[in-house]
Amino acid sequence: MKQAYFLPALLSVFIMSSCKKEAAPEMKPLEIAVTQVVEQDVRLESEYTGQTFGQSDIQINPRVDGLIESLNFKEGSVVTKGQLLYTIDPLPFREKVHQAEGALAEVEAKLARTKSDYDMMAPLAKMNAVSQRELIAAKEAYNASIASIKASKANLEAARIQLGYCRIVSPITGMIGISKVRVGDYVRPGAGSVLNTVSDLGDVRVRFTLSEQEFLRIYREINKPDSNLKGIGQSVTLKLSDGSQYPQIGKVSFADRQIDPTTGAITFEAAFPNPDKLLRPGQYVKVGVVTDVRKDALVIPQRAVIEMQGIYQVYVLGDSSKVQMQIIKPGPSYKDGYVIEDGLKTGDKIAMGGTSLLKNGSVIVPKITPWQPGQVATSATK
Asked: Which Gene3D superfamilies does this entry report, sorted A to Z (predicted)?
């Protein structure tokens, strides 16, 4: 009898212990960072690829032919206006000067002789001691000598100018580049014969292009009476090739007179201060120009948006700390956020993501986290 009662009791205890092991523990709600949709005025920038130029980029070209005799500067250094850069062998041109001086001396002597002859014949012609023909011939010889003097002086001046071209000086104060020639190289005048380039780096010019369609849109918007884009050309930003932001703000200087028919784009130029000489001619940069201003736009963090097959969604915090998945229509990017065109309203709170465990209808512990576009999130507060 005891054994008959003992076995059912033991079996009952075993079943109860098994049921306790199979019961799943209750899941705690996830603690999720939540932020409120930001409403603010947004200035949307478009980025364009640009190239830098010096305030003045002046090529140094020879104006006479000859052998380079000396280089009188340090490559990559700052040179001053009027500083001697190159000398070309002056001997052939100095010889031309001497020849021109000799020719001038000859015609000066001839002038003195013809003037003396004419001065002597003039009174004799009045007394009919010499014929009028002789007087006229003497006068013509004198006038020819005067003309020869002018020609000889011009030849001498030209020879001296050519001799002066043997000394090549800097036309501006600026930074000089690497020399294209060395001592002993033969150079000659011409557009293709460049010795060096001097750049004024006080301000740097940046050229970039806009498509014709975008130019037309911005132009029409700027010319509206209540346009928010007026003065956009006075605040242009620059991003360097390493992704860093250039600290100085530039201004648009001008736009080209025409649309390039081969590219369908128009060229703009902006000027940037360059106090530290960080910008150099030839750099490729990203130019940021405000091309749209939206009043009272709704902005959310990009990391809060879930994109699947072209559908964009966010988790919106509802009653009882439940989150519901909401389809949205994002607009353009703004810093590290999106401008939202549809799907959200002012005051909505959204989950900032960061976990794949979040599901539609999940109950969470919201951790309110202030967020502003382009700023690191501040410490969370419950």
From this structure: 2.40.30.170, 2.40.420.20, 2.40.50.100, Helix hairpin bin
Q: Where in the chain is the domain with CATH 2.40.420.20?
A: 30-39+297-368
Report pTM.
0.69
Q: What's the pLDDT at 107?
A: 87
Torsion 71-74-75-79 (CA) sign: negative
- pLDDT of 22 above 50: yes
Fold category of 62-87+168-194 in CATH: OB fold (Dihydrolipoamide Acetyltransferase, E2P) (2.40.50)
Q: Detail the DSSP E strand segments found in the chain.
A: 30-36, 38-60, 66-71, 78-79, 84-88, 167-169, 174-176, 186-187, 196-211, 237-239, 251-255, 265-273, 284-301, 306-308, 311-317, 323-334, 337-342, 349-351, 364-368
The CATH architecture of the domain made up of 90-165 is Orthogonal Bundle (1.10)
Of 204, 180, 196, the closest CA to residue 54 belongs to 204
DSSP of 311-372, one letter per residue? EEEEEEE-GGGBEEEEEEEEEEEETTEEEEEES--TT-EEE----S---TT-BEEEEE----
